[in-house]
Amino acid sequence: MFLVGIGPGSVQDRTPRAAEAISSCDVIVGYDPYVEAVRDLLTTQKVMTSGMMKETERCRAAINEALSGKKVCLISSGDAGVYGMAGLAMEMAAADNDTVDMEVVPGVTAANSAAALMGAPLMLDSATISLSDLLVPWEMIVKRLEAVAAADLVVSLYNPRSKRRVLQLEEATRIMLQYRPGTTPVGIATAVGTEDQFLVLTDLDHLLEQEVGMRSIVIIGNSTTCLLGGRMVTPRGYYR
Q: Within its chain, how far is the Cα of 207 from the centroid?
């Protein structure tokens, strides 16, 4: 059973290893839009899809197909081990004492793809935090944001805002402004790897004025991050 990260969505950012795994499988299991993103690789494979909030059902379906002897791909966007399905599949198999050979096929993460569009903001130590409080209590997310802000880490924010969750990004911005000046560079990359892709470079003072949604990745720089020739760069220290 392959746990495959398909990257941000474009064919160009999908790894050859991911493509090979998908092409070689009997069954493909995934969230509808992610399966659509690999439609070019589908021939005779059985395809099993479902919508949002059906993660456990998809994992169970994939494990059952693998237990029946099928070669299965359970796909995630980005990397399967970064906010993806790899961990859940392993947890469920262990809980049910299912013996399934699993191989994680890494993918290009949304944060890395967004950073590449912005310039080179992740050159130094950084952290990744999801602002979704569906699975992690908001109090814990706040604790992590405060620690990251105090440690002067560049931070990539996943799930920064949705139609129902509009206050989390405001709170995250307020926390960052306690430790960093309002001129700190911020990049917002939305729908990376798709035809709808767009990029905004701004700063902490103006972050909340920008269009940010569930398909956005927000990267907030540290105290040394700067704009060079229209690119967001965090110097590592090679050049002095």
A: 20
Look-up of token digits 């956005």 = 216
Q: Using an 8 Å Cβ cutoff, are 235 and 170 in contact?
A: no
Tokens 């299965």 belong to which residue?
Answer: 72
> Which strands make up the sheet holding 154-158, listed edge to edge?
126-130, 154-158, 216-220, 185-190, 198-203
pLDDT tens digit sequence for 92-133: 999 999 999 999 999 999 999 999 999 999 999 999 999 999
pTM of the model: 0.93
pLDDT tens track for 35-71: 999 999 999 999 999 888 899 999 999 999 999 999 9
Find the mean pLDDT for residues 5-19.
94
Phi, psi of 112 (to 5 degrees): -65, -40
* Cα 225 off chain centre by: 22
- Cα end-to-end span (Å), the chain: 48
How crowded is residue 140: how many other Cβ atoms within 10 Å of its Cβ?
10
Distance, CA of 206 to CA of 82 (rounded, Å) = 29
Q: Look at residue 215 and give its three-state secondary structure.
A: coil
Question: Quick one: 162 exposed, middle or buried, by C-beta within 10 A (0-12, 13-18, 19+)?
Answer: middle
Q: Tokens 């209590």 sit at which residue? A: 137
- Count CB atoms within 10 A of the CB of residue 91: 12
Tokens matching residue 13: 């950012």
Whether 240 shows a pLDDT value over 80: the answer reads no
- Give every strand in the sheet of 46-50, ordered side by side: 46-50, 27-31, 72-76, 2-5, 103-105
The neighbour count for residue 96, using CB atoms within 10 Å, is: 11
Inter-residue contact 219 to 118 (CB < 8 Å): yes
